[in-house]
Amino acid sequence: MERESFEDAEVAQLMNQHFVAIKVDREERPDVDQIYMNVCQALTGSGGWPLTIIMTPDQKPFFAGTYFPRKTRFGRMGLIEVLQDMTAKWNQNRSRVLTASEQILNHLRPQAKAASVTEVTPDLLEQAVQAFSEEFDGEYGGFGNAPKFPTPHNLMFLTRYAHLHQKPDVLNMVEKTLRSMYQGGIYDHVGFGFSRYSTDKKWLVPHFEKMLYDNALLVVAYTEAYQVTRDPLYKSIVTDVLTYVSRDMTDPEGGFYSAEDADSEGVEGRFYVWSVQDLREALESEEDVQFAIDYYGMSEMGNFEGNNIPQRIHASRSNELGGNSDQGELRGQQAERIRRRLFEYREQRIHPHKDDKILTAWNGLMIAAMSYAGRVFNEPSYIDAAERAVRFILERLQRPDGRLLARYRDGDAAHLGYADDYAFLIWGLIELYETNFQITYLQTALELQSQMLKLFWDAQDGGFFLYGEDGERLILRPKEIYDGAMPSGNSVAALNLLRLGRITGDSSFEELAQKLLDAFSSHVDSYPAGYSFYLMAVQFALGPTKEIVLAGAVTDRRMDPMINAIQQAYLPNAVVVFHPSGEDQEEVEHIAPYVRDQRPLGGKTTAYICENYICQLPTTDVEGVIHQLQQL
Residue 8 phi/psi, 5° resolution? Predict the structure, then answer.
C-alpha cells in the first residue's frame, strides 16, 4: 500500500484535503495497534496488516479494513473510492456515522473486561495437546496448512508436556517440526537465522523478513529440545542462530536490533536466492558447484521464481551434521567450506534494510534466549551478550525514576514501556540470574515486577493492562492474553510471578499469578491451543515444582561441576537459588529468607533439592546431585 497508494499524488491529494493522516508503527505503539485491530475484527470478521482505520477526531472508529489497492479491481474496493465514500458519509450524514462509532465502542468495551472465571485444571493442557495433535502435519511438521509460522512457544509447551507426562508421540511432533523448519528455506542456510514464516507447507518459501523475537524464542525451543534429546543438530542450530544475531543484529553498545526486511533492491528475497550461474561465480571449481547444487537442492530451473532458495528438505536425517562416518565428516567439512564461500559472495550484494530500532520487549526475549543457551551449552559469550544487553536497556531505556521506555534509536529513547516490555525483560533477568547467579539481576527483576504491578495491574478484574496508568488515555484500555506470533505479556507475567514466588518464598506472587490465570480462564477455555505460554504457567502452577538451593563459596572448585549438572538438566518446573558464603549472602537471605538454614556442610558446596519446599537429604557429591535430579 505504501508504494501503490500512499505515494500516489491523487491519493495524497484526497487524504490531505479531507483527512488527518496518521501512520502508526505497531511495534512502537502496540496499544494503538491492538485497540484498532479489535475494531477491524469486530467490523469485518477478520484482521491483518496493513490495517486501515477511519475514525472521528476523538479517536472513535467507524470504518476498518486491511489492504486496499489504489483503485477498485477484481471486486476489491480501492482506497480512492473508500476515501471518497467516507468523505461523503461524513459530510452528508455525520450523526449516523457518530452513532455507528459509538455502537462499535459499546460492543468492544465488555471485551476489555474480564469474563467469568472457570477453573484452571489439567484438562486445559490435554485439550491443547489434542488440538495440536489434530492439526499436526506428519509429513512436514508444523500445524495446519500454509502459511506456517514457527510459533516457538507452542513447541516449548509441547516439549514440557511430553517430558512431564512421558509422551514420546508429543515429543515427536516437536522434533519433526524443529527439524523440518531447519531443513526448509525458512532457515537461512548460508547466513543463518530464521525468517518470519513460510508461505508453503514444506517450509520451503519464506517471507524473507527476519524478526528478532522469532529467533530469540526459537533459540529457547531448540535449546530445550537439545536438553531433552541430546541431539547435536539442535545445538548446532542454536550456535548458528546466535552467530547471526551477534554478527548482524547487535548494536555496538549491546542492544539487539529488531528486524531485517524481506526486500532488497525492491524485490523480495533477492538477497537470499541463487542461480546456478551465481554458484559458478562464487565457488572455485565445478566440483564445488555440483556439490552445492546437490547439498542445497538447487537446479537450473530453480525452486522460487526461476532462482533457488538453499534448503535441505531432500536430505535424510542421517546426513545432517555430516553423519557419523568418516566420509560423512569429510562431507560436513566440505559443506562448511562451501557455505563460507557462498556467504562471502553474498555479502557483496545489496543488503535488505535493517530495522535498527531497539525494543525493550524483544531485547528481553533475546536476553532470556542468550542466558538460557549460555548456561545449557556453557558458552560465556552468550552470557556476556545477555549482560551487555541488560546494561544497555538499564542505561538507555530506563528513566532516572526507574520507568522503562519502549524504543531506542539513534540516541532517542521514546514511548512509555508497555506490559510486554516489563514481562519480557523480567523473564530475561530471571534467566540471567539462574545462569550466573549474580544477585543484582534478581533484584532488578523484583524491582521491575513491583513497578509493573503498580502501573499495569487491574485491581478489579485481575491481569495486566497493555499500557500503564501513566500512559496516554485511549478509547479503551485493553488486556491481551492470546499467545500469537509472540506470547502475550500476561502469559509471560504469570510464569514470572510463579517463578519469583518460588525463588523468594513469597506466596503473594503466587496469589497474584492465580488471579491472573483466573482472569483469563474463560478465554483460554474456548481454545486452549491458542494460549500455549499461558498453559506453561498453568503447568508450573499445577506442579509439582522443585526448588534447588546451592550453598557454598564461589571459590569452591566443586561448585562448577555441580552447577553444570543442574543447568544442563531439563527442569522446566524448577527454580535455582545460589546461597553464597561471601558478600552477597545477606542480600540473598533478604530476598529468599527460607535459604538461611541451607548452608554448606563441612565447608563443602552443598545442594538442597526440594519439592514444594520439602527437601531431600542435602548432598555434597556431584553424583548425588545427578542421582537426585534423575528422580525429578
Answer: -85, 135
Look up the domain containing 602 and give its range.
546-630
Query: Are 415 and 514 found together in one domain?
Result: yes
Instruction: For residues 501 and 391, state if they share a domain.
Output: yes
Say which range, 130-144, 551-565, 566-580, has the weakest mean pLDDT: 551-565
The amino acid that residue 620 corresponds to is T
Last residue of a domain, one of 77, 112, 147: 112
364 and 424, same domain (yes or no): yes
Give residue 115's pLDDT.
52
620 within a domain of the structure (yes/no) = yes
Does residue 589 sit in the same domain as residue 499?
no
Which amino acid does the sequence have at 106?
Answer: N
Count other C-beta atoms under 10 Å from residue 428's C-beta: 29
Identify the CA nearest to 203 among candidates 299, 314, 129, 49: 314
> Nearest-5° angle of CA 321, CA 324, CA 330?
65
Strand partners, 55: 61
What per-residue confidence (pLDDT) applies to 330?
55
What is the enclosing helix (H) or strand (E) of 158?
helix 152-165
Residue 325 is predicted with a pLDDT of: 40
Give the mean model confidence (pLDDT) for residues 522-539.
96
Single out the residue in 112, 135, 169 at which a domain terminates: 112
DSSP strand pairing (546-552 vs 574-580): parallel
CATH code (residue 96):
3.40.30.10
Q: How far is CA 93 from the centre of its chain?
A: 46
Side-chain-side CA neighbours of residue 165 (13 Å):
15
CB 183 within 8 A of CB 198: no
Quick check: is 117 in a domain? no
Q: What is the DSSP string of 285-341?
A: SHHHHHHHHHHTT--SS-SBTTBB----TTS-GGGGGG-SSHHHHHHHHHHHHHHHH
Both 439 and 466 in one domain: the answer is yes
φ/ψ of 474, rounded to 5, equals: -105, 175
Q: If we measure between CA atoms, which residue out of 576, 595, 574 comes closest to residue 585? A: 595
